[in-house]
Design goal:
The complex is a heterodimer of chains A (116) and B (109). Chain A contains no helices and 11 strands. By secondary structure, chain A is an all-beta fold. In chain B, strand 9 and strand 10 form a beta hairpin. The chains are: A mainly beta (116), B mainly beta (109).
Chain lengths: 116, 109
């Protein structure tokens, strides 16, 4: 089946620094990738949708200058949390949609970010 | 390797009851989640089980047996709006989510 990986799996950083999280589709080409954040026992909150080669579409309330998304290739999207603060500590999950299967979404294992 | 199995698709009748099963083999266990996802929308959290037994929440219940690596989501009094994909996910010993492929539930009148 389709596999999506994320790197790193967990990261601890100091307040004010930037962190980059990678999302890769390992055995398929993802024309669309989604970035979510999840707080404990809550629903996944969609942050942004990125299409390969174009600018990401951010959900209302998500700061695009703080959460930089780059989808430079069909297998890689990156989320950079700039000038991270403790309130940015969360579980970030990406998913990828195979361009051939419009309804199928494959989820990554998540990245746990802790900002101290 | 780590693996989550759930049926690809199920069909049920409005007003009836349906049980969606999920079996898992993971490196460690830190809880099992069920999500509902309507097409084009973000997954919605339904339940979290970390101890054996049944958790009831309105029309939805979730059961876990850690010794059997098994969970099910039970939906009662089905409504047409329950037509969606249901995702089972297990958090492993590294607090990583292992996702099932999802079960597409089709509700017929």
């Amino acid at each position: 089946g389709a596999v999506v990986s994320q790197h790193p799996s967990r990261v601890i950083c100091k307040s004010g620094t930037s962190v980059k999280i990678e999302c890769r589709s390992l055995d398929f080409q993802a024309t669309t990738m989604f970035w979510y954040r999840q707080f404990p026992k809550q629903s996944l909150m969609l942050m942004a949708t990125s299409n390969e080669g174009s600018k990401a579409t951010y959900e209302q309330g998500v700061e695009k200058d703080k959460f930089l998304i780059n989808h430079a290739s069909l297998t890689l999207s990156t989320l950079t949390v700039t000038s991270a603060h403790p309130e940015d500590s969360s579980f970030y999950i990406c998913s990828a949609r195979d361009g051939k299967e419009t309804d199928e979404q494959y989820f990554g294992p998540g990245t746990r970010l802790t900002v101290t | 390797g780590q693996n989550i199995d759930q049926p690809t698709e199920m069909t049920a009748t409005e007003g009836a009851i349906v049980q969606i099963n999920c079996t898992y083999q993971t490196s460690g266990f830190n809880g099992l989640f069920w999500y509902q996802q309507h097409a084009g929308e973000a997954p919605t959290f339904l339940s979290y089980n970390v101890l054996d037994g049944l958790e009831e929440k309105g029309r939805f219940s979730s059961f876990l047996s850690r010794s059997k690596g098994y969970s099910y989501l039970l939906l009662k009094e089905l409504q047409m709006k329950d037509s969606a994909s249901y995702l089972c996910a297990v958090m492993d010993s590294n607090y990583q989510l292992i996702w099932g492929a999802g079960t597409k539930l089709i509700i017929k009148p």
